[in-house]
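Risk mitigation, structural track. In case the binding assays with zinc ion fail to produce interpretable data, a predicted complex structure has been prepared as a fallback.
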Amino acid sequence: MSQDCIFCKIVKGEIPSQKIYENKDFFAFLDIKPINKGHALIVPKVHCENILDFPKAEETDFIETIKVVAKALVKATGADGFNVGMNNGEAAGQVVLHAHMHIIPRFKGDGLHTWPHKEFSKEEMDELHRKVLNELIKE
Ligand code: 5GP
Ligand code: ZN
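Fallback model:
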């Protein structure tokens, strides 16, 4: 528990939320400013900041929980699909520094657009490719 973390407070019931699901390690609730109808968040009950410090023992159950919640959201909203996404770090749009997965129901023609693509030169792509491979060789 981090003292000032709003998601820790939501998990503990100190801040009200529209809870939709809970199990041993996870808590899911509707997003207060939904991107689309049924936009929900799933958070680990234990405070961690992002996916890189997510507890190893909970990783598989996290995916299972995402599937359970996503299925229910799709049925409840009549969605045609859904996005699952996580912002890690402020530069990536993370505002609340308690790891959370967004589940966003999607509807044909709902007007939401995915990220725009960028172009990089062949040289830049090759250099980047080399650098990433180099990092992964160290793993
Ligand atoms: P982030 O940008 O950090 O990935 O997303 C944080 C999400 O949490 C946002 O979509 C925001 O609307 C949601 N949020 C922030 N504060 C609250 C809150 O107090 N209650 C609920 N239900 N959602 C919140
Ligand atoms: Zn927290």
